[in-house]
Automatic annotation (TrEMBL):
KW Iron (keyword) present: yes
Main location: endoplasmic reticulum
Signal peptide bounds: 1-24
Protein name according to UniProt: Alkylglycerol monooxygenase
Domain Alkylglycerol monooxygenase C-terminal: 368-433
Catalytic activity: 1-O-(1,2-saturated-alkyl)-sn-glycerol + (6R)-L-erythro-5,6,7,8-tetrahydrobiopterin + O2 = a 1-(1-hydroxyalkyl)-sn-glycerol + (6R)-L-erythro-6,7-dihydrobiopterin + H2O
Species of origin: Capsaspora owczarzaki (strain ATCC 30864)
Domain of life: Eukaryota
Length: 527
């Protein structure tokens, strides 16, 4: 059914692609210039009251407070929810330690998950204007009935429509290999979205353009994503009768299980009713093993984002026959010659809890180092989603942030070149800042090329602190390289041992990862 759904939405996507360049450019330019939601009640720099923000996390929002007439008025709810993400993770960490005298979170896994969340938001900041431009064009040209933007009925219809579309895009992402390549990374954390996911699945929302105003669509895409954050906790076991209607931690645990009975189940975002209606619902039964059936033994977000797409192309190249080559892309991840479209469930390893997980030792000093620089990335993300930067500068800042995330992955993986890569990253920023200051003739730091008129004394002080942190970090990395010049052989042995415990599927094989089998551990910060 997912394949048929793709045919329907592909027609809408093709129509959107036929938009005139002038119209699309106008929409994108408007969205880029208004990315921070100027004039709104709340913004990243003017956050909402505590109870209002908590309501966002649970989709408890009065329709009148989240209905807008123009797309540029819609706040970036997800960016504003960043403090709630971090606070929730901290609370779960404390509660878990108090109950079990140990944490259910692993620091390296949590940092990797949060880094992936940063990456998804960076991608969104760069690509979202183009996605919503296609929807606006479809709405302006194909709308058959214009629902009033300020009606509560429109708001509730939007909630159901967006969640229904999400169910089918989520299901298609598991049953179509090419879409799975953009989605599999999403399965490792509540915050992660694959960088390939946005450009490949936004078309599932285009049929709503027949009636639903673009601002209402944008609002519900935000809240649908925010709701899915809290259902990744292990602290809540059951919500009683609400389990029949809502997607809950118990239901979503099944979705992330690698047990055979969990595979390709419970696709819903906010509501579980779609799974009950279309035969993909599964209640929690045996103890769930969270993880992937063929784990990737790395914390590197760059490798993880693109590992499966590389596997797809290698398999398509190796397999015989054009029909089979196309099937590699459009059948399920578990398909192979002689098997059903979605693969064979018997190919899934029959695992039982407990099961070993990929892990690497991480000193408290290194954990603290990565955490401090992660906080700096959060600040950079807030700047990226504001309207202070020109689009080319946004792209440059995004590239730097992604380089930083890759460096984090190398440090967490204990890769031999990690310290040198991190030192190079820091020095490049310091040198670039010094060069720009000299070119502009400034006596203050010029990070991100902000016009001096837009930089307050407070921001200047923060930039001075940032400069100091970077200098200290450079010194720290030099010391690290001096005391541990090479641990390559040890790293290779450790990696080999870990791969024996959790084998990675061979990318040279003609057999893909079976039946959308990737799942991973689940906590608020890591699924």
């Amino acid at each position: 059914m997912a394949a048929e759904a793709v045919v329907v939405v592909a027609a809408a996507a093709a129509a959107a692609a036929a938009s005139t360049a002038a119209s699309a450019e106008s929409v994108v330019d408007t969205l880029v210039r208004n990315a921070s939601g100027i004039g709104l009640q709340y913004s990243v720099t003017d956050p909402p009251p505590l109870l209002v923000g908590l309501g966002w996390m649970f989709y408890i929002v009065p329709p009148a407070d989240a209905s807008f007439s123009h797309i540029e008025q819609v706040p970036d709810y997800i960016a504003m929810a960043t403090p709630y993400f971090l606070t929730s993770i901290l609370i779960e960490l404390i509660v878990s330690f108090a109950k079990h005298r140990k944490s259910s979170l692993r620091i390296n896994d949590s940092l990797s998950s949060l880094s992936a969340g940063i990456w998804s938001q960076v991608t969104k900041a760069l690509l979202y204007p183009f996605d919503i431009a296609a929807y606006i064009w479809c709405y302006n040209n194909f709308c058959v009935y214009e629902l009033p933007w300020d009606s509560p009925y429109t708001w509730w219809f939007g909630m159901l429509g967006v969640d229904f579309a999400y169910y089918w895009l989520h299901r298609a992402a598991h049953e179509i290999n090419l879409l799975w390549a953009g989605h599999e990374y999403n399965l490792t954390t509540a915050l992660r979205q694959g960088v390939l996911q946005g450009p490949t699945v936004f078309c599932f929302y285009l049929p709503l353009a027949l009636v639903l105003p673009p601002p209402i669509l944008a609002v519900h895409k935000h809240f649908n994503t925010l709701y899915q954050f809290w259902i990744h906790t292990q602290m809540i076991k059951s919500l009683g009768p609400l389990e029949w209607i809502l997607n809950t931690p118990s239901h979503h645990a099944v979705h992330h299980g690698r047990n055979r009975y969990c595979i390709d189940k419970n696709y819903g975002g906010t509501l579980i009713i779609w799974d009950r209606l279309f035969g993909t619902f599964q209640a929690e039964a045996d103890p769930i093993v969270f993880g992937v059936t063929h784990p990737l033994s790395t914390w590197d977000p760059v490798y993880t984002q693109f590992a499966h797409i590389r596997h797809i192309f290698r398999k398509a190249w190796a397999i015989q026959g054009w029909r089979n080559k196309l099937a590699v892309f459009f059948y399920g991840p578990g398909w192979d010659i002689g098997k059903a479209r979605t693969g064979d469930l018997n190919d899934i390893p029959d695992v039982r809890a407990p099961w070993p997980k990929y892990d690497r030792s991480l000193s408290a000093v290194m954990a603290g180092y990565v955490f401090v620089h992660f906080l700096l990335l959060v600040v950079a993300l807030q700047l990226l989603t504001s309207n202070l930067l020109a689009y080319p500068v946004m792209v440059l800042l995004a590239l730097y942030m992604l380089t930083t995330l890759s460096s984090f992955g190398a440090l967490l993986d204990h890769k031999p070149m990690a310290n040198g890569l991190e030192l190079g990253r820091i020095l490049s920023v310091l040198v670039l800042d010094t060069a720009i200051r000299g070119y502009l003739g400034r006596d203050t730091h010029a990070f991100f090329w902000l016009p001096r008129a837009q930089v307050s004394d407070t921001v200047q002080f923060q930039l001075e602190v940032l400069w100091t942190i970077l200098l200290a970090s450079a010194g720290f990395m030099v010391i690290q390289m001096a005391v541990s010049p090479s641990n390559a052989s040890l790293t290779d042995k450790q990696q080999a041992k870990l791969r024996e415990e959790a084998p990675v599927p061979s990318t040279s094989s003609t057999t893909p990862t079976p039946l959308g089998a990737r799942r991973s551990q689940r906590t608020l910060s890591s699924r």
